[in-house]
Amino acid sequence: MATTASEVGQVQSNNRKSFTSVKALTESPQLTSLPPSYTYTTNSDDEHEIVTDPEEDDPIPVIDYSLLVAGTPDQRAKTIEDLGKACEEWGFFMLTNYFVSKSIMEKMVDEVFAFFNLREEEKQEYAGKDVMDPIRYGTSSNVSMDKVLFWRDFLKIVVHPEFHSPMKPPGFREALAEYSRRTWKLGKELLRGISESLGLGVNYMEHRMNLDSGLQMVAANLYPPCPQPELAMGIPPHSDHGLLNLLMQNGVSGLQLLRNGKWINVSSTSNCLLVFVSDHLEVLSNGKYKSVVHRAVVSNKATRISLAVVIAPSLDTVVEPAKELLDSQNNPAAYIGMKHRDYLQLQSSNRLNGKSVLDNVKI
Prior knowledge:
The protein is an alpha+beta fold and 363 residues long. The chain is built from ten helices and 15 strands. α5 packs across α7 (172-197). It is globular. Residues 19-56 are annotated as: Disordered.
């Protein structure tokens, strides 16, 4: 006998272990309304409900990567200045002219779609529970802790310092390897510029964060059409671990940033990457560059794919404010030091809720 959507919701509410994926739920012909376990109620965790678009006089910053790596000295200096301003005022920017071809990006999105289209039993081979698992397929955020289930399936893969990949679908590994190599180089070059913008020297961050053995993680997110999108949430407000997060989308919008108490819609475009300042860059800069709080909303019309690349310190690196930026009188340390590995464990034991994880290391 087929399981109805209401029955699925009941099973999920009472026994989270039996839950598989949002995609499997959406493929049920009986699904006409949102199961109760997915009903997201706005509360004090998410009190900013004004949604707007970037205003013409305060647009989202755009950084031309080509000027950073191949521009004249004056162009590079201006780009580094713009990078610092974007990190300080927005914690976010759009990146153009970054030398990753459209065909490579489209191939990666196609392979992500192909993975999520595998039979559920095949995907479950990669189901993981520990945040340190090199390949982890799952749903929601943290099913064992989430008070409400989120309308999202995910695949998280560690690709540096050791490369891992699912063996299915057939073309996935090759596409992932190419995309990972390109984005790792891209992320390191951005961090060189950001390091200079802080006055720390071009190689400071690479050496201090031990990027030769740094963590690079690729996180693919699937947001299927939702029967009642106004009642559900793809991912609740949160900031990311790591130094930077490079985000690619499949042309379907859903990303929103929190800025000055308002949620801002970020249009999905095919010719730019979206770059987020993440928690460890906020710590290293002693709060000068703040990680950006963001969320993912869903729609009833199209499937959204996002592909995030986390550029992060090595797992054994203690991330703390750069001593060169501190002054005991005017700028004392605002964060305690913590190993990246321990920060990840802390994140996995907390519900997603704004900067609740980062708050644990604030002095």
